[in-house]
């Protein structure tokens, strides 16, 4: 059906077509402008190229700066939009990893300590003039912690193993053997009152008898050195060694150190002898490997 040029329908159709034609010409305009700038650049003298470059940079720098700030903003925004679940998951993984590393470090430290201890034991055995039988602690009675321990050797392992033999480590005297079974031996510790050692102070040369005394008021294991002469010159800090007079312990083994020399009292040995407290040279809380001193060379 023919449409009148003056009708409203014809006017709306023309208005809708004109914008489309304008939009379609934009690439043409941009291309023409680019070609125009290119021709100007080619036509300009060479000395002006640097100036044109500078002008171009000056014009582009604000846009580049805005673009950089926008990019940085979105990167920070994406980093900050991690969910709480992701953060908790990462924290949990870090804690697990930290625990694993702590366990590895503890295990390596244990191996290093054991290696150092065994090296010390080997060196002591090689340099000792005694016949030594090595053993390892396998049991300790909680009710008699400072009295007895049990080691993994017996008369079935060594026929010369018997009661009342010295037990030592490179750090000093541990005690003596008690009951000996086929594959098990009781060790009477130096802090047990049934362990008695003839001893001598290293500097003053005062002789006495070291007897186990259990633990002190602050729960530290100790022994007493009794029957010291009234005029004994022994002092705190002095080392105590076996004297070899008792018939059980050979001379020269380190027993411990004097921590206190008690004053003469009538209530103690009728005032005839002095007494001192002795701290064992061996750490009785860390007993693991040790040697039994067998008779003979």
TrEMBL record:
<dbReference type="InterPro" id="IPR007221">
    <property type="entry name" value="MreC"/>
</dbReference>
<keyword id="KW-0472">Membrane</keyword>
<protein>
    <recommendedName>
        <fullName>Cell shape-determining protein MreC</fullName>
    </recommendedName>
</protein>
<keyword id="KW-0133">Cell shape</keyword>
<keyword id="KW-1133">Transmembrane helix</keyword>
<comment type="function">
    <text>Involved in formation and maintenance of cell shape.</text>
</comment>
<feature type="transmembrane region" description="Helical">
    <location>
        <begin position="26"/>
        <end position="44"/>
    </location>
</feature>
<dbReference type="InterPro" id="IPR055342">
    <property type="entry name" value="MreC_beta-barrel_core"/>
</dbReference>
<dbReference type="GO" id="GO:0008360">
    <property type="term" value="P:regulation of cell shape"/>
</dbReference>
<dbReference type="InterPro" id="IPR042175">
    <property type="entry name" value="Cell/Rod_MreC_2"/>
</dbReference>
<comment type="similarity">
    <text>Belongs to the MreC family.</text>
</comment>
<dbReference type="Pfam" id="PF04085">
    <property type="entry name" value="MreC"/>
</dbReference>
<dbReference type="InterPro" id="IPR042177">
    <property type="entry name" value="Cell/Rod_1"/>
</dbReference>
<dbReference type="GO" id="GO:0005886">
    <property type="term" value="C:plasma membrane"/>
</dbReference>
<keyword id="KW-0812">Transmembrane</keyword>
<feature type="domain" description="Rod shape-determining protein MreC beta-barrel core">
    <location>
        <begin position="137"/>
        <end position="293"/>
    </location>
</feature>
């Amino acid at each position: 059906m023919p449409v009148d040029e003056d009708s409203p329908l014809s006017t709306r159709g023309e208005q809708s077509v004109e914008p489309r034609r304008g939009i379609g010409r934009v690439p043409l305009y941009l291309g023409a402008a680019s070609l125009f700038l290119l021709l100007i650049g080619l036509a300009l003298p060479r000395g002006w190229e640097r100036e044109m470059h500078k002008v171009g940079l000056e014009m582009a720098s604000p846009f580049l700066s805005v673009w950089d700030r926008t990019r940085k903003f979105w990167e920070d925004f994406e980093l900050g939009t991690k969910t709480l679940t992701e953060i908790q998951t990462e924290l949990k993984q870090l804690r697990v990893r930290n625990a694993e590393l702590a366990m590895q470090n503890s295990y390596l430290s244990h191996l290093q300590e054991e290696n150092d201890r065994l090296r010390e034991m080997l060196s002591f055995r090689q340099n000792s003039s005694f016949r030594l039988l090595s053993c390892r602690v396998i049991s300790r009675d909680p009710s008699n912690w400072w009295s007895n321990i049990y080691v993994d050797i017996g008369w079935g392992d060594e026929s010369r193993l018997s009661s009342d033999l010295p037990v030592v480590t490179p750090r000093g005297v541990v005690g003596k053997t008690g009951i000996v079974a086929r594959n098990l031996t009781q060790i009477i510790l130096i802090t047990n009152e049934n362990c008695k050692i003839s001893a001598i102070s290293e500097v003053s040369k005062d002789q006495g008898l070291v007897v186990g005394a259990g633990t002190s008021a602050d729960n530290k294991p100790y022994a007493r050195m009794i029957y010291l002469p009234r005029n004994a010159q022994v002092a705190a800090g002095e080392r105590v060694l076996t004297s070899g007079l008792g018939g059980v312990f050979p001379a020269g083994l380190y027993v411990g150190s004097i921590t206190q020399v008690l004053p003469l009292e009538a209530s103690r040995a009728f005032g005839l002898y002095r007494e001192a407290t002795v701290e064992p040279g061996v750490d009785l809380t860390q007993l693991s490997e040790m040697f039994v001193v067998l008779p003979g060379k």
